[in-house]
Write a structure and sequence with these properties.
The structure is a homodimer. Chain A is of the alpha+beta class. Chain A is 47% helix and 19% strand. The first copy, chain A, has a five-stranded antiparallel β-sheet with strand order 7-3-10-9-8. In chain A, helix 5 runs antiparallel to helix 6, helix 5 packs parallel to helix 12 and helix 8 runs antiparallel to helix 9. Chains A and B meet through strand 4, strand 5, strand 6 and helix 10 of A and strand 4, strand 5, strand 6 and helix 10 of B. The first copy, chain A, binds a DNA duplex through helix 3.
Chain lengths: 340, 340
DNA sequence: TATTAGCACTAAGAAAGGAAGAGTGCTAAA
DNA sequence: TTTAGCACTCTTCCTTTCTTAGTGCTAATA
């Protein structure tokens, strides 16, 4: 079992290492713990046996292992303890009620990236329970149409429709009218099934060449909402961290950032602020990812901060918690006010 | 003046250095020129005096200077000489008449990036002479509208409009109707002035609270087309080049790529394929940028290939020329066919 | 029993030296 | 104009040495 002083010691070592990026030696901690280096060394050895500390070589100081960081995050750090200075910076954003939600989120992540030198990512999309407000179809030429879909939160998306054969304009406008009649108010993720099971049977009776028309519209409307906004802030910040000191490290992490499945690895399903240290995340063993999900006012998505494992956990977690609370809480206040 | 053998020599040195990335020594070129290393050395010294060659240190072989590359590009390389293999790869794309223009361009740049290991960028936008086809306005709530603008080439853009005070629905739809009547067929870059000088005076007579409405619409419609598509292919490719062998080099070039004004530095105003070597380009002294402008079928923009100064100039220039010719020529053929 | 002093030991990192190799410039001869 | 020859220069790689910051272990101490 881990003793009280040992816990304190682990906490101190993590924080010291986070600050300096150098292995922590026993002497450094003497004053703090008012005991000799030998005592510290004994405790360090215990913590190493428990798997919380590592050495870079046989006679080096200690650095936290992945388990060490994990223990720190779970048991030692004081989350929710956002510093006054950090809070102040974020407050200026959330006090500005003019700001749109998306802008507020990106501005606050810009601040985090700026003051921490980590990389942050916002992954956003339309909430899947937003409802379809209007379908508009504009002809471009005899075979090409543009379908525009608008949701009740004001999100607009458009798709080009290519018809396999010429269809009279009236057929198109009849279909559009029908779609509007039957689809308005439908949550967008239910649109495909409603098309298939409710609209298709009806269209069949109204429209001459219904298969061509139906297929074209189905393709356009069912792939809606597949696109996601992704915004990186400070993509190169993480390169400033001393852990990326060799060319290969840098190339490696950059190519991970650029890779196609990066986006899917940012998504967070959990509702709290979660910390994924090293091998716990799918991006790279050398980084820590702090993520959370948000959902408010027709928008939902994930926010992630990516930094070295040697990360200022307390700071990042507490700032992310603060942001999450304020975008979800704060913006609901705002919506209520507007409704009055 | 530069003699014939010296030209040959410079050409050979550029090409050898491009291939190997190591300074070229006099011995290497003996067989090729059927003379002794001393002769080569004399000529090299001349070329160095003329500013076309450099040494990395006093007893090293020679590498081309920026002027050397420039001379090579202007006088020595055989452009238009695309290799059969490269041509074949590009042909498969341009023969595929199914492909949309944008896709054809990005596919061909993917190929270039793949086979050369350089980075390519496409900067595209709607042509400024495209014409407005339709304006649609959808209300979201009492104060918020979505304006959707469609051009004759099927490009759609939308902007949210926030009204400063409540405006009756009829006023909005009257305005929309008016806009459609007066703006259809207007080239999009003429929309702002037409709003100001033709629409504003008319609106004044029809609409109660015309200033609020006019301002809201003006903001929405005049900032249209400001957004540009940017697509990088192989952003990390250039890191594979041996010139980026130190961490600082890599970090430096990456941060240039990420910087905000990168996009503006890609734009090419010249109609030919142009080569910007080292300090000639604004991105970074250590890279060469090969750029060209294209304009076809409602789209226009620039294409750029970014690689080390030690670039396969002949290959890149000839491939880019081939692509430019084919997207502009080829797609016009296609358009004509479709019109028949 | 927990702490401490002392000491032998280890690895990293920086500095210095040396040898090999690739290439040059210059001189003088062909 | 070309070439052979030679002294010279730098880079690169390898080895050695020294310093330093740290360790583990043992034995003494509170």
């Amino acid at each position: 079992m881990i003793g009280t002083r040992q816990k304190e010691l682990l906490k101190e070592i993590v924080e010291e290492y986070v600050k300096t990026a150098r292995p922590v030696g026993s002497k450094t901690l003497c004053k703090k713990f008012k005991c000799s280096s030998a005592t510290i060394r004994n405790d360090m050895a215990t913590l190493e046996n428990l798997g919380y500390l590592e050495k870079t070589h046989i006679s080096s100081g200690r650095i936290p292992s992945e388990e060490g960081y994990r223990y720190y995050v779970d048991n030692l750090m004081e989350a929710k303890k956002i510093s006054g200075e950090d809070m102040l910076k974020l407050q200026t954003i959330f006090n500005n009620k003019e700001l749109e939600l998306d802008d507020a989120i990106s501005k606050s992540l810009e601040i985090i990236s700026d003051i921490t030198n980590y990389t942050s990512v916002i992954l956003g999309k339309e909430s899947s329970d937003n409802r379809l407000q209007k379908v508009e179809v504009v002809p471009i030429d005899s075979r090409q149409l543009i379908a525009i879909v608008i949701t009740d939160t004001g999100h607009v998306e458009n798709k080009s429709i290519v018809l396999e054969e010429n269809i009279p304009t009236e057929e198109i406008s009849k279909t559009t009218e029908l779609l509007n009649k039957m689809l308005i108010g439908t949550p967008i993720d239910e649109v495909p099934s409603k098309l298939e099971f409710e609209i298709k049977p009806v269209i069949r009776n109204y429209i001459e060449n219904y298969e061509v028309v139906y297929n074209a519209f189905y393709n356009a409307l069912s792939n809606f909402t597949s696109e996601r906004d992704v915004k990186f802030t400070g993509k190169t910040n993480i390169l400033k961290q001393p852990e990326f000191s060799t060319v290969d490290d840098v190339k490696n992490i950059i190519s991970k950032f650029e890779s196609k499945d990066m986006v899917s690895k940012i998504e967070e399903t959990n509702d709290e602020v979660k910390v994924y240290i090293g091998s716990e995340n799918e991006i790279d063993d050398n980084v820590t990812v702090v993520k959370t999900k948000y959902k408010v006012g027709g928008r939902e998505g994930s926010i992630a901060i990516i930094g070295p494992k040697r990360m200022e956990y307390e700071r990042v977690v507490s700032m992310l918690e603060y942001i999450k609370e304020h975008i979800e809480g704060g913006k609901e206040d705002k919506l209520e006010k507007e409704e009055q």
